[in-house]
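Hey, I'm writing a tutorial for new members on how sequence and structure tokens pair up, and I'd like a real worked example in the thread rather than a made-up one. If someone can provide the structure for the chain below, I'll link this post from the tutorial.
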Amino acid sequence: MNTYHDHQVHKFGFLLLPNFALMSYASATEPLRAANLLAGRNLYAVRQLSYGGRPVQSSGGIDITCDDISSAGAEFHIVFVCAGGDPENWAEADRLFSALRRLSRLGVRLGAISSGAYVLAAAGLLANRDFTIHWEHAPLLRETYPNLTPRQTRYVIDGDRITCGGGIAPLDMMHALIAERMGTHFAGRVSDWYLQTAVAASSDPQRGSAADRFGTHNPILLAALEKMEATIENPLDRGAMARFLSISGRHLDRLFVQHLHGGFLQTYRQIRLDHARRLLEQSPLTIAEIAFATGFSSTGHFSQAFKTYYGRSPSSLR
């Protein structure tokens, strides 16, 4: 079928959870509005959805009027779950699981933006699927659902599942979805409308490289730092890390002092404690579970290390 002669209005639903990320939502909905303007006709229709049809407040404090998701059916082509970063607000999500499963059975493509993939995972809708989630929420999802492994890419289209890390990445995702229907030339016109001079590929990373994040370009040190981030739950000792890098322990110490102005153990602990703080702020895991997940031998040891580093106890973040 020639997509340019597809006169059907494609209906997009956005299921909003309290404190959903406003920038992510705008990055996903605005390209559809621009596509309608550029085409001179309604290619896409957008409806906001919520549990019970109540208004939902965004991360920017703006209330969005919504329709009840229970009224949504097979007329939708795609329904995206848009969620923010406050785990206490995900509690409402359990009342949405049956509605999402019903839409899936009806053949509606389901998507997620920012932390929305956590909701799809909790509803059992990401099993054996390729998907992504915002990097800040990936640790929580992996801890809660160890059988699921999100990719840290900007967006993933896996058949009837479409997931996006959020931020401005929905601009790239919508370019792909518009091109899927209307062709790359038309999708490029939509990108030009928003001064998006470079469209990222779905496989592009969500974050800057380790070199940018840690401020070093030493290849051995970068390999060590990436290994640290990958072994938070079971940290390697100094000797094991040196063997992994095929260098001596003394050379390993010199690299950290010379390039990062801190020791091997100090840097490793900072990475683990930063991870622990994200889990404390975002997850329902107990402090004991977080201690174990970040490689500490006991809750007491973890609490003391956390207080020394942050100047406050882990419980104070709850």
